[in-house]
UniProtKB/TrEMBL annotation:
NCBIfam families: thrS. Pfam families: HGTP_anticodon, tRNA-synt_2b, tRNA_SAD. This is threonine--tRNA ligase. Its EC number is 6.1.1.3. It is an enzyme of class 6 (ligase). The lineage of its organism: Eukaryota, Viridiplantae, Streptophyta, Embryophyta, Tracheophyta. Belongs to the class-II aminoacyl-tRNA synthetase family. It comes from the Eukaryota. Keywords: Aminoacyl-tRNA synthetase, ATP-binding, Ligase, Metal-binding, Nucleotide-binding, Protein biosynthesis, Zinc. It comes from Kalanchoe fedtschenkoi. One of its GO terms (molecular function) is metal ion binding. Residues 88-381 form the Aminoacyl-transfer RNA synthetases class-II family profile domain. GO terms for biological process: threonyl-tRNA aminoacylation. PROSITE patterns: AA_TRNA_LIGASE_II (PS50862). GO terms for cellular component: chloroplast stroma.
Length: 484
């Protein structure tokens, strides 16, 4: 009755088969369950669910199931589900001690453990180097700001439900930042700019805070505090195409490091309600399209799917299971430059408004790390692995040599450790369980010849080699981002 009362359109349709099955639905249904391949249908689980998704309503029982055209499709789906479960970043993150979410601190707040923090450090270092090489200036900005800033930006009017309550500090209201954009604009506004200054590119690994309901939180994929690899480009109208092309090249360079080469790209155009005149929208949209054509990437047009403040390009990466993940975004913005009244002086000494481009490559570091864990199933490549080589002594009488070797590996930039106290087969099993990419086994013969016997997680037994050769081969694999 509640659903019926909420339907305002007519006619209301109820589909039925005989007097056995009546459904508040437009139909049609199959006339007989015999038309369905029963071997292609499977019930999966049950769970509680609030009626119509509202916690104020009664809790009902929800039954989950899946249906396919054939038994073969169902088997393929089961395999996919099992593989996705095996790769679940929450389980792997716990097994490998990469991160945690501590309920004592609150849901949706990520603790990066030493091993996870090492991987993040490597990603961030690589990100910074590439950006500096591409002409970006790096920024660090505050986590809070006066609430007035978010009123100017429009977030308090259009984004308030995703923001935390304001804090009263000495009779002034402050707000945790949900975005980094206003900060970068303030850095731009600190001085007068000439047309000769453009393009101006600034980038920041900036942590933001978004209000999320506890029921929507999910591992690293949906959290309340996360770090964006945020960047903003201030440029002239005739520079948009080249800047977008530069962002596409930078995006590809970063993503290819992690093995992501298949992308789904969408170009979203002007929606019905938008700021900015038709001329600038046409120029910006054409520039985005031309940049994509120059790059040679295939893309789809999402007519009317752009933000109210400008057209955009969205890029989804494809992981090892063929799943698509929203990752990079490039957005032209006509709104914030107007709201903050940012200007530059053109060649005729007149004040003009610059074009602002928002862009992120990885999106959220937390979410991207979750995608990486599931993409690799925890088997990180050598260059990313928190422990690259584990030294395993046959007996504890060889520990002095092992610690000397460990010291030498570290001095040559290799993340290594010594593990002992168990029989060698168990040490090897533990290393495999912890997905250590390289094991260096040391016995009396290795001590005598100042060598190691190398076992690679991906390459198998590599034989015995001198320590210097081992270091050279490991460093070469790290530098080329290949396996040993």
């Amino acid at each position: 009755m509640e659903i019926l009362n909420s339907i305002k359109e007519e006619p209301i349709t109820i589909y039925h088969i005989g007097n056995e099955w009546w459904d508040l639905c437009a139909g049609p249904h199959v006339e007989s369950t015999g038309n369905i391949d029963r071997k292609a249908v499977e019930l999966e689980s049950v769970a509680g669910a609030y009626w119509r998704g509202d916690v104020k309503n009664p809790m009902l029982q929800r039954i989950y199931g899946t249906a396919w055209e054939s038994e073969e499709q169902l088997k393929a789906y089961r395999h996919f589900k099992e593989e996705a479960k095996r790769r679940d970043h929450r389980r792997i993150g716990q097994d490998l001690d990469l991160f945690s979410i501590q309920e004592d601190a609150g849901g949706g707040l990520v603790f990066w453990h030493p091993k996870g923090a090492i991987i993040r450090h490597i990603i961030e270092d690589s990100w910074r180097k590439i950006h500096i090489d591409c002409g970006y200036s790096l920024l660090y900005t505050p986590h809070v700001a006066r609430a007035d800033l978010w009123k100017i930006s429009g977030h308090l009017d259009f984004y308030k439900e995703n923001m935390y309550d304001q804090m009263n500090i000495e009779d002034e209201l402050y707000q945790l930042r949900p975005m980094n954009c206003p900060y970068h604009i303030l850095v731009y506004k600190r001085k007068r700019h000439s047309y000769r200054d453009f393009p101006i590119r600034v980038a920041e690994l900036g942590t933001v805070y978004r209000y999320e309901l506890s029921g929507s939180l999910h591992g690293l994929f949906r959290v309340r505090g996360f770090t964006q690899d945020d960047a903003h480009i201030f440029c002239l109208e005739d520079q948009i195409k080249n800047e977008i092309r530069g962002v596409l090249d930078l995006t590809e360079q970063i993503l290819l490091q992690f093995g992501f080469s298949n992308y789904e790209v969408n170009l979203s155009t002007r929606p019905e309600k938008a700021v900015g005149d038709d001329d600038i929208w046409d120029k910006a949209t054409t520039a985005l399209r031309d940049a994509l054509d120059d790059k040679g990437w295939s893309y789809q047009i999402d007519e009317g799917g752009g933000a109210f403040y400008g057209p955009k390009i969205d890029l989804k990466i494809e992981d090892a299971l063929g799943r698509k993940w929203q990752c990079s975004t490039i957005q032209v913005d006509f709104n914030l430059p107007q709201r903050f009244d940012i200007t530059y002086v053109d060649s005729n000494s007149e004040k003009k408004r610059p074009i602002m481009i928002h862009r992120a490559v990885l999106g959220s570091l937390e979410r991207f790390f979750g995608v990486l864990i599931e993409h690799y199933a925890g088997d990180f490549p050598l260059w990313l692995s928190p422990i690259q080589a584990r030294i395993l002594p046959v007996t504890d009488t060889l520990l002095d040599y092992c610690f000397e070797l460990d010291k030498k590996l570290k001095a040559n930039g290799i993340r290594s450790e010594v593990l002992h106290g168990e029989r060698l087969p168990k040490l090897i099993r533990n290393a495999e369980t912890q997905k250590i990419p390289v094991m260096a086994v040391v016995g009396p013969k290795e001590l005598e010849t100042q060598s190691v016997t190398v076992r690679s997680r991906f390459g198998g037994e590599l034989g015995t080699m001198k320590v210097d050769e081992f270091i050279c081969r490991v460093n070469s694999a790290i530098e080329n981002k290949t396996f040993l």
